[in-house]
Write a structure and sequence with these properties.
Helix content is about 80%, strand content about 0%. The chain is mainly alpha-helical.
């Protein structure tokens, strides 16, 4: 993944007011790569975690 893409991925949750995603993104992406998660699983987890914080 290029540096530009990674920086954009890190920046966009802040722009979209996805505070929880911003907090967990780096660690979760490392874990997802290690565990060989597919993109659908990654998105599902990140969106579910963000939704949990919005529903509190």
């Amino acid at each position: 993944m290029s540096e530009t893409v990674y920086e954009r991925i890190k920046k966009n949750p802040d722009v979209l007011n996805m505070k929880n995603t911003s907090l967990i993104l780096d660690n979760y992406l490392e874990k997802a790569v290690h565990d060989k998660k597919n993109i659908v699983e990654v998105l599902d987890y990140l969106l579910a975690e963000e939704a949990k914080t919005k529903n509190r």
